[in-house]
Specification:
This protein is of the alpha+beta class and 524 residues long. It has 12 helices and 17 strands. The strands form 4 sheets. Strands 1, 2, 5, 6, 7, 8 and 17 form a 7-stranded mixed beta sheet that branches.
């Protein structure tokens, strides 16, 4: 029996892998998708239980998933078990690597905030005077953004601001702003800070995932086969041509070693998993850049204020509730001199309640305070951009292996003075706005969660025009191996302050169409 040889092997089934499969199969190209986990069967695997029925009352089991702050006893099974697939980091540089190995990957669980990058990100080196520009601009990616936004049914309000590019939005009627949101907007505008609304992927039936928006069309072509529970160990290379020719993988349950052949390979396993696979394969790194420039966004800066006239249940109709979104407003002009480069956005929410952690009280006195402040709070938090720095990197730790004997990643990422200055500015600015509004500040922190917490890690196989400074070209194609593509967040040059999902999808669409064209012309 002949072993089937596919035209393209796709590793990973999340947004980037799903998009690659969607585009390639509709171009008539046969694909095999390897996914490290199974398809979720909610009818079989999910049960309804009250917190009191669980051993840890719904809280995360101590010692289980110590780096996944999002984990609880209710959802622990959806995350990758860190004991089964560990990673290492220095004791003084914690890193939160949050992974999902279900079919659809993290596309099953993202928050669906949907932004385009702007030329403030694509051409950041021209603005900051440091780092590298992307080899593409917003104009290059805009047509693909528009197509992605149509598929994912992104809502938003068009503004015409260069740092906050408009998209191909679903027509939406936003509710009228409440008095608190109007007040924040008025005060921000006086500081020349522009205020808008969130941009959000509606998807279908509340799910905006690879499994319902991308893979069904690919499967319908008859050109896509999928293998679940396939742990990819290494990309194989033809010794005569130097081209990628498939992958070695192991069955997750039986431990059986297998190999699949393909004319081209597309990596879409997620930034760090794709990089781990390439490093373990020992390929595509003539530049020495692979694994470096790991970057993501800062989360954690938060200011919470209480609106006095809303306390004790006295808020009049129209006072509280609603939200606002402030896109990046720092370092947009040469006249804006700061002690940091890059910028941040601010999410504003009105109508929340105070956390017990905000007050040095306990017992009946604490409960009385919480009851008084219930529904009276306005909060502001940020997504802050980190600088892509060479020293923030990943490498293989050969002394530690996962459950299938594959060496794991060692991750080193630390914030610099630039990040500390940025988050201090953010906390102070939000506090000033709330104070000017006449509200009581009840919580303020300029501290952030460890790198990785945002689950937006990017940059470890950056693209560029110079093969000596980058791993991929502008098509997400390896400089060293022309039939190898990396279409997830690893290709990013800068992170931006934006959720990266729309950019990952647009890049994967663009790269996949280029691959299809190259294959049709027999260049690959």
């Amino acid at each position: 029996m002949a072993i089937k040889e596919y035209e393209v092997l796709i590793v990973g089934s999340g947004h980037s892998g799903g998009m690659a499969a969607n585009i390639l199969t509709q171009k008539g190209i046969s694909c095999l998708m390897l996914n490290a986990g199974p398809e979720a069967d909610f009818g079989r695997d999910r049960t309804l239980k009250s917190a009191h029925e669980l051993p840890y009352r719904g809280f995360n089991q101590p010692g289980r998933l110590p780096h996944v702050f999002q984990a609880t006893e209710f959802n622990a099974n959806q995350w990758v078990d860190e004991k089964e697939v560990p990673y290492t980091h220095p004791p003084d540089a914690e890193y939160n690597w949050v992974r999902v190995r279900l079919l659809g990957g993290r596309s099953l669980f993202w928050a669906r905030q949907s932004f385009r990058l702007s030329n403030f990100e694509f051409k950041a080196a021209d603005i900051d005077g440091t780092g590298e520009n992307w080899p593409i601009s917003l104009d290059d990616l805009a047509p693909f953004y528009s197509r992605v936004e149509t598929i994912f049914r992104v809502t938003g309000r068009k503004e015409g601001w260069p740092q906050f590019p408009d998209g191909n939005f679903v027509e939406t009627t936003f509710p009228a702003d409440t008095e608190t949101i109007k007040r924040v907007t008025e005060l921000a505008n006086k500081r020349s800070i522009q205020v808008s609304k969130w941009r959000h992927a509606q998807g279908q039936n509340g799910l905006a995932s690879s499994i319902n928006l991308l893979l069904p069309d690919a499967l319908a072509t008859g050109k896509l086969d999928m293998v679940e529970n396939a742990i990819v160990r290494e990309i194989s290379v033809d010794k005569n041509t130097g081209l990628a020719n498939g992958a070695h993988f192991v069955d997750r349950h039986s431990g059986r070693e297998m190999h699949v052949k393909a004319h081209a390979v597309v990596l879409a396993a997620g930034c760090l998993e794709s990089t781990r696979l390439l490093l373990n394969s020992g390929i595509a790194n003539s530049s020495g850049v692979m694994g470096h420039y790991l970057v993501d966004q800062m989360y954690g800066v938060s200011v919470v204020a209480s609106v006095p006239e809303a306390r004790d249940g006295k808020a009049k109709p129209g006072l509280m509730g609603g939200s606002a979104f402030i896109p990046r407003f720092r370092n947009l002009t040469k006249n804006d001199k700061r002690d940091f480069i890059k910028g941040y956005c601010v999410n504003i929410s009105s109508g929340g309640s105070a956390s017990p952690n905000f007050f040095p009280l306990y017992g009946a006195e604490l409960q009385e305070k919480l009851d008084s402040y219930a529904g009276s709070c306005v909060s502001g938090g940020i997504f802050g951009e980190r600088v892509a720095r060479y020293e923030n990197h990943v490498r293989i730790n050969k002394d530690v292996k996962d459950a299938w004997g594959i060496p794991v990643l060692h991750i080193e990422a630390r914030d610099s003075e630039n990040e500390r200055n940025l988050r201090r500015d953010a906390a102070n600015t939000i506090e000033e706005l709330f104070h000017e509004a006449g509200w009581e500040i009840i919580c303020k922190t300029d501290q952030v969660n460890p790198p990785g917490y945002s689950i937006h890690e990017v940059g470890t196989c950056r693209m560029g025009n110079d093969p000596k400074k980058s791993v991929l070209n502008k098509w997400c194609q390896s400089h060293d191996i022309k039939n190898l593509f990396v279409v997830d967040g690893a290709s990013f040059v800068t992170a931006g302050w934006q959720n990266p999902t729309m950019t990952i999808l647009a890049l994967s669409m663009r790269a996949s169409e280029h691959l299809a064209e190259e294959m049709n012309q027999r260049n690959i």
